[in-house]
C-alpha cells in the first residue's frame, strides 16, 4: 500500500502538536490513506519535544526529529523530507493553518498522476495590517525576482518521491523551498485552500524576519540584483557624458560651471552609488562564502519512531 509522509516543522508549538497529530490521524484514516507524520522540532524553547514524545507513544506512525538548535523552517522542512519514507510527501505547518482536509484532495490528485501539488492561498487569512503590507511588498519583489508567483504561494505542498529526491539532490545550503518545488518542474497541479486562523501559539514572523527572508531568498534564487549594479553604472556613465559635454561647452564659451557645490554633489552621488553596489556584491559574496563552507543545513540530535529511539539513524552526510 502507498504511504503518505506528512512533514511538519515545529518551533515552539507545544500547544499545537497533540491537536495537530490527532486531527491528521482522524482525517487521513477516514480517507483510508496510510500515513507517517514527520515532526521536526526546530530547536524549540518550550515543551514541543516532550509533546512529540507523547504523541509518539500514542501513535507508531510518528517520526520525531530533534534539532540540536533552531535552524529555521527551511532547514526543518529539508530534514523532514530527508527522513520521510513515503511514496508521496506533503509539507504543512503544524499550527493547522493549512487545512488537513486539503491533504486528502492533494492525495487524490497525486493518485491521478500529478507529481507536484501546490497549495495556493485563496486568501491570506487574518494577518495584522503591517504584516499584510510588508508580506505583500516582499512577495511582490520576490515574484518578480524568481519569476514564480509568490503572492499566494505557500509551503503547503505534496510531492511525489521522484520530486523529493530531486530536491534533496540539490547541493546548495541556502534553498528557497517555496520556489524550488516549481523550479524542479514535473507535472504540477494547484489546489486552493483557505488559510485558517492559528488556534494557539503565535506566528514566528516579525516584519524584520520577513525582510531578511525576502533578501535571502532573492539572493538564493537570482542574480538579477547584480545586473542593477551594471544598470546603475550605465546610467551614471550616460549622465556623466552629458555633464562633461555641458561643462566643456560652458568652459569654452567663457562661463565655467560653479566649482565647489557641483563637485561635491557629483562626488557624493557617485560615492553612494558605488557603496550601495558594493553592498549588493558583498551580500552575494557573503552568501557564496556560506555556501562554500559546506556546513550541514541542520544537525539532528535525536530521532524517535513511535516510542522507539532510533537516533542511530542520524546521518550527517545526507544533508
Ligand atoms: N517554524 C519552524 N522554525 C522556525 C519558525 C517557524 O519550524 O524557526 C514552523 C512553525 O512551527 C510552523 C511553521 O513553521 O509550523 C510556520 O510558522 P508560523 O505559523 O509562525 O508562520 P505563519 O503561519 O505565521 O506564516
Ligand atoms: Mg502559521
Write the SSE topology.
Elements: E1 3-10, H1 17-30, E2 34-41, H2 48-58, E3 62-67, H3 73-83, E4 88-91, H4 100-111, E5 116-123, H5 129-146, E6 153-160, H6 161-168, H7 177-183, E7 188-194, H8 207-221, H9 224-252, H10 260-293, E8 300-305, E9 308-309
Parallel strand pairs: 1-2, 1-4, 2-3, 5-7
Antiparallel strand pairs: 3-8, 4-6, 5-6, 8-9
Keywords:
binds magnesium ion; nine-stranded mixed sheet; alpha/beta; 319 residues; binds uridine-5'-diphosphate; single chain
Q: What does this molecule look like?
A:
It is a single chain. With 319 residues, the chain is of the alpha/beta class. Helices cover 50% and strands 18% of the residues. It is built from 10 helices and 9 strands. The chain has helices at 17-30, 48-58, 73-83, 100-111, 129-146, 161-168, 177-183, 207-221, 224-252, 260-293; strands at residues 3-10, 34-41, 62-67, 88-91, 116-123, 153-160, 188-194, 300-305, 308-309. It has a 9-stranded mixed β-sheet, with helices on both faces. Helix 9 runs antiparallel to helix 10 (260-293). The chain is elongated, with a radius of gyration of 25 Å. The two termini are 28 Å apart. Magnesium ion binds at residues 93, 95, 97, 198, 203.
Amino acid at each position: 500500500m502507498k504511504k503518505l509522509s506528512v512533514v511538519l516543522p515545529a518551533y515552539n508549538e507545544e500547544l499545537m502538536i497533540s491537536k495537530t497529530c490527532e486531527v491528521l490521524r482522524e482525517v487521513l484514516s477516514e480517507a483510508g490513506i496510510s500515513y507517517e507524520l514527520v515532526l521536526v522540532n526546530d530547536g524549540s524553547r518550550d515543551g514541543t519535544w516532550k509533546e512529540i514524545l507523547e504523541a509518539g507513544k500514542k501513535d507508531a506512525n510518528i517520526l520525531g526529529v530533534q534539532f540540536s538548535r533552531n535552524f529555521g523552517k527551511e532547514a526543518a522542512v529539508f530534514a523532514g523530507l530527508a527522513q520521510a519514507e513515503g511514496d508521496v510527501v506533503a509539507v504543512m505547518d503544524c499550527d493547522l493553518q493549512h487545512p488537513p482536509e486539503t491533504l486528502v484532495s492533494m492525495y487524490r490528485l497525486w493518485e491521478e498522476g500529478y507529481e507536484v501539488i501546490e497549495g495556493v492561498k485563496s486568501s491570506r487569512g487574518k494577518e495584522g495590517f503591517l504584516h499584510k503590507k510588508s508580506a505583500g511588498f516582499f512577495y511582490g519583489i520576490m515574484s518578480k525576482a524568481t519569476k514564480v508567483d509568490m503572492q499566494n504561494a505557500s509551503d503547503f505542498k505534496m510531492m511525489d518521491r521522484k520530486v523529493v529526491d530531486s530536491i534533496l539532490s540539490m547541493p546548495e545550503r541556502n534553498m528557497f523551498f517555496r520556489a524550488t518545488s516549481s523550479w524542479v518542474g514535473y507535472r504540477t497541479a494547484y489546489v486552493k485552500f483557505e488559510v485558517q486562523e492559528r488556534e494557539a501559539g503565535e506566528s514566528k514572523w516579525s516584519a524584520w524576519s520577513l525582510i531578511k527572508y525576502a533578501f535571502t531568498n532573492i539572493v538564493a534564487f537570482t542574480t538579477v540584483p547584480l545586473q542593477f549594479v551594471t544598470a546603475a553604472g550605465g546610467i551614471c556613465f550616460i549622465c556623466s557624458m552629458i555633464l562633461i559635454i555641458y561643462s566643456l561647452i560652458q568652459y569654452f564659451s567663457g562661463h565655467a560651471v560653479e566649482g565647489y557645490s557641483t563637485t561635491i554633489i557629483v562626488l557624493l552621488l557617485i560615492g553612494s552609488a558605488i557603496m550601495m553596489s558594493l553592498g549588493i556584491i558583498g551580500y552575494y559574496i557573503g552568501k557564496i562564502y556560506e555556501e562554500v563552507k559546506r556546513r550541514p543545513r541542520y544537525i539532528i540530535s535525536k530521532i524517535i519512531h513511535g516510542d522507539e529511539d532510533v537516533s542511530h539513524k542520524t546521518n550527517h552526510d545526507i544533508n
